[in-house]
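Posting for a labmate who doesn't have an account.
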Amino acid sequence: MPNAHTEKKLFRNLPLKSTKFYYKYIASSKYDKLLYVESLNENFFIKIIDKNNHLLFKADKITRPTNVKIIQDAIQDFIQINKLSVLSSNVISKKNHLKKKSIYQKDIFFYKNYKTKNDCEIEIGFGSGRHLLHIAKKNPNKEFIGIEIHKPSIEQLLKQCKIQDITNISVLDYDARTFMQILSSNSIDKIYIHFPVPWDKKPHRRVISKSFLDESIRVLKKNGSLELRTDSENYFKYSKDLFLSLKKCNLVIRKNNNDIISSKYEDRWKKMDKNIYDLYLLNGEISKDKEELYFQEFKKKINFKKIINNFQNKVIKENGYFIHFENIYKINDNSGIIQLSFGSFGRSEHRYIVILNNIPTYLPSSIIPTKENILSDHLIKRFIYE
């Protein structure tokens, strides 16, 4: 990530403007500072850390823009405006253009209540993309959603979609467990989960769980299916028992059955005479429409002075969700920033509550309205208004 080490020196008074950026304010905590930057397309923080004999400027992980070039330019411009001597830096980019986002890659909010006239199938953890590319080419009239968090795998699939001119795939970099919660009921024809990480030592990190299974059945159309393919006997037994715990279950089990296309890992395991297990869960019911969940607006005013005086780094754990108040920053007596994380234990959200003249807002402002996030939000508001 972009960073620069500079001499310690007083900055010019804010706000400041460069040709590309507007540097609005600095918020300070015991540990670091946050420099708020507005650009044409995105607003974000740059983190400034006092290293005793020099300053470190670096990208803020929570608000950083998707394009690294924007952060590089913002750090570089701020350093130049304040005439700071640079000790070391990696923010000088040789490229003078911004990398365009692939048309195939979508934001999580694109799929909120996602509907299509065509049949739609999902592959969770597509890896090299070999299977997803094959079924998408074979079924040009179907829509396919590929979900993956491994960045090189995503880049590889996006590249192949462009090279092969495949237009019926969309790609999402997100946690599948949260993704399922935002889809409409009875909207998906098939869900593929091929060779997920077994997580034998950390089973809570597995994709398949009771809550994931409930959401999968809800989003699947009647006669739709969930297909698990795994080389792990532990994962197979765990999933089989979980499927059979359902009140109604139509389950097909196969062993060492050849799929329409084999991944490079599957090829390797077959050479090692490793068993491959398939579980096909068929959905036999029509689900109720998904309950729409909404965030409440912040009340207009809070007492920031009281909040900063009483602030503690603490974690609040509830049934299925949590809040962690991590840090607090001061801009002035009536303005500052609370850093926190919240939501489900498996997929937490990281945000700031920016309080300007005692009026709070989330940054980034977009939060997926899952049950855990909604409950966390209610509890957060209760605490800051006490």
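Reply:
Got it, the structure tokens are right above this. The chain has nine helices and 19 strands.
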